[in-house]
């Protein structure tokens, strides 16, 4: 989003900047005192700003690369560490701020086949290959309107009812760039099957009446 937040910097008010700096060095932060009692600490692309003044209770939640090693460094430096559920650890900095730390979040990637294509696209192609009615070649074509001679393997559709058959390469491109496009798998769980299952047989309706 244009004009949105580009970065955020946590600010901690501390009584002793040097003592706080030594504590956060145990997490990998480094820095030198700045102007007006402000000390920016850096750890990779992250910034933590220490401001000399009356401490205000705060809390930080940190993702660290090695939870056990971090806990050991803190304990060796005289900062007790409590282990809490879900693999988190808790300690307190020299100014009484609560520091929670845990391992980094890992977002699993969507499953893909050995050729690198998302599994849903590959499954849709496999379903289409078992059915008749697909055109001989990709109907999507290249970005400048040039025809594509690759076989049509996937059927795409949108909520307006427009459909097109495409090769896997151009189908992938269309799914990314055409908002509202989706895979039309033509399996047994579509709307037609759902409506057919709802229809009552005439003889059953007569009995019910």
> How much is the radius of gyration in Å?
30 Å
Helix run count: 6
Outline type: elongated
Helix content: 25-40%
Biggest beta-sheet profile = 4 strands, mixed
Mean pLDDT: 78
Strand content: 15-25%
| SSE run | EHEEEHEEEHEEHEHH
Q: How many beta-strand runs?
A: 10
The secondary-structure class comes to alpha+beta
Distance between the termini: 60 Å
With strands numbered from the N-terminus, the spatial order across the biggest sheet is 4-7-6-5
Unreliable residue runs: none
Key terms:
209 residues, 4-stranded mixed sheet, alpha+beta, 6 helices, 3-stranded mixed sheet
Structure description:
The chain is 26% helix and 22% strand. The strands form three sheets. The protein has a four-stranded mixed β-sheet with strand order 4-7-6-5, with helices on one face. A three-stranded mixed β-sheet has the order 1-3-2, covered by helices on one side. The mean pLDDT is 78. Strand 6 and strand 7 form a beta hairpin. The protein contains six helices and ten strands.
